[in-house]
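Lab manual, section 2.4: Encoding a predicted structure.

Procedure: take the sequence of the chain (302 residues), apply the prediction step described in section 2.3, and record the output as structure tokens. A sample record is shown.
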Amino acid sequence: MRRPALYSSASRARPQPEEAPAAPSPPPPAAAETTAPARRRRWRRDPRLLWAAIVLLAAATLASGTLALRPVARLPTQKDIDAAVLHTLEHKVLPSPATRAYGAVIPSVVRVMGFGKGKNGKEEELGVGTGVVIVDKGTILTNLHVVSGAPTIKVTFMDGLETTASVTGTQPENDLAVLQAHKIPDDLLAATMRSTDDLAPGDQVLAVGFPFGIGPSASAGVVSGLGRSFRSPEGKHMMTNLIQFDAAANPGNSGGPLVTMDGHVVGIVTAILNPSQQRTFVGIGFAVPIENAASAVGLHPF
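Recorded output:
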């Protein structure tokens, strides 16, 4: 059906009777379709346009309201951070420094056993001590008196691997021996060594080893003194420049690491003071500084 033409609302002049009728005016431009009356007629003819406009208006109103109600993100203040840290400290038990030090060094600690022929000709254990891996190829430091006189030496790593070992070097003046394990775990870790230059009396230390074959065991204490001297019970020689400490040590701890709270080895436990013949700990132990021990295997001093 043809739509009626829309005309401009401007008035036209009447034709005079004596003149010919005026030519009809040209049709109005297509832009006349956009006048207000035309738009209203379009809404009435197609209700879908009206509903679409209502939906769009409602959506715009809802969106603007949502944006207005959304809270603005606030950056945490120092007070917020302090409160969060305090809450964590109050509700979460943190490991002690000694626990962290033990965890750091224990993968490198080994049990050292000396074996020889017994009276009945069978192999028997002659003694037990401790060692610490200082090179991840299986180089181990221990005390010379732990392996001295043992035809067969065996070491047990923390993963349970047991293997034989050979003595590759000794330092009798410091009661030190260097062992080379014949087999090593695939993931063997060497201990971290630290200079004793900044070590001071009162510094916390940990002794790790196999006292009386029980272990691995840990005992905590402090550095009691530096530059101490000690004569072996047999009176054979005097050891000097030792670290004195009060972490419990007993037979079997010999050759084990003396460790700082950051898990670094500063000494090799070598002796305990025994006023009596009971060979029990009375609160005074001695360790060879790691600088001396490292030189036994040709490592560069700190």
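Check your result against the sample. The longest strand covers residues 217-231.
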